[in-house]
Amino acid sequence: MTRHQTFRVIVTKSEIFEIDLAARAEVIALTRAERLWDGGMRSRFARVDRQERATFAIDEHATSPLRDIANEDRARWAKKALQAFSQETGSGTGREGFSDLLCDLGHYARSVGLDFDEEFERAAKTCALEVAEEVLS
Question: What pTM did the predictor assign?
Fold first, then answer.
């Protein structure tokens, strides 16, 4: 299995934004950042400063200390979150617990002013991109 390095991609438009992305190579991180940006997932980018036109570049100083992240890492983090939720609610860690957690995330999103359907769709697209990168490696 190929492990991915995390690249900090800097996006410059009328403002500067950045995002940390796991990828096999810089070109993949740049392409993925452009897809996320153009695909309406700009909320994943952190605003940094003001500028003029959109450009994409790798921040070499910030990229090197970031460790490799693989989808197995992401799955492990999600499992820990589901286990913690299950302990709190008694819903289990199977299909029912998973569904309950998603439902309660919807309630949480609503309570903080997020559109759960939009966030769920954004998460599904991001997951698909990460799985596609894994398949390519």
Answer: 0.53
